[in-house]
Amino acid sequence: MDWDDLRIFLAVARADSLSGAGRRLGIDASTVGRRVARLEQGLGAKLFLKTPQGYALAPEGERLLPHAEAMELASAGAEEALTGPGDLIGQLRIGAPDGCANYLLPQVCARMAESHPGLEIQIVALPRVFNLSRREADMAVAVSQPQAGRLVVQRLTDYRLHLAGHEDYLRAHPPIRGLADLRGHRMIGYIADMIFDRELDYLAETGADWAQLTSNSVSVQMQAIRAGAGLGIVHDFAIPFCPGVRRILTDRLSLTRSFWLIRHQDDRRSQRMNRLADVLAQGIRAEVARLQAQLSP
Fold first, then answer.
1. Listed residues 83, 114, 134: the one ending a domain
2. I want to staple 103 with a disulfide (CB 3.0 to 4.6 A). Which of 112, 123, 197, 238 is the partner?
3. Shortest CA distance to 111 belongs to which of 278, 283, 291, 285?
4. What DSSP state is assigned to residue 132?
5. Is a pLDDT exceeding 90 seen at residue 145?
6. For the chain, percent of residues with pLDDT exceeding 90
7. Is 97 helix (H, G, I), strand (E, B) or coil?
8. Rounded to whole angstroms, what are the CA distances from 91 to 3, 18, 44, 253, 260?
9. Residue 217 sits in the same domain as residue 108
10. Which of 83, 99, 121 is the last residue of a domain?
């Protein structure tokens, strides 16, 4: 069985489409389709079912999937064994919630790229949980520890969040001396039915019943606060990027959350992936500490 054909099979299984697989592999969709058809003909089995949503694995494809993944891991291991540890090269796709992706990963990945010129880093910012079994990312940063799946989970660091507003808004509205005073202010937060992780449900901590301006993106929320639209709970590490935004009621309301690094269990056997995980973890810890240290007590 040709490993190159199985590589294409894996790309289609993970992308759910010929075009998506083609983009990942750098070839056109028609070539992907021909290679899949050739593999199916050679095996005498239908590997995919075409659905309105794209290409879904047929039962035969489901049975082939773990064997193809094992060959992928063996191929990567063979390459590592021949080339030795050396420099970190190749592609690394990191999935992260948009707060981490916008305010932490650009600096962390810039330093990684500087230290490892042969590394191609992709940052995928999505307000949802990543599916590593479908290889949507090589590793992902999450805001809570997953409880199921064939995953390696590593605690990265704690980070702090506080209530904040722009100084222009705070000057133009009644003073805020306690949580009860928030009732007369506009609140900014997450769209309630789009909160993908319970750790992001901050609004109840303020005692507010609802938020007047909401978004599924923490970065959009921060820009709304910066524009003077109201008050919201924000990451301390994001405040240095937003001149004029300052924390309030820090002695009354302070939240602590954690970042977790999540990888596919099979990647533990890859020296390269272990090294990349270590570099990324160290970088995120250092960047959170650096940014939070810039805030006055």
1. 83
2. 238
3. 283
4. G
5. no
6. 45
7. coil
8. 19, 21, 33, 41, 21
9. yes
10. 83
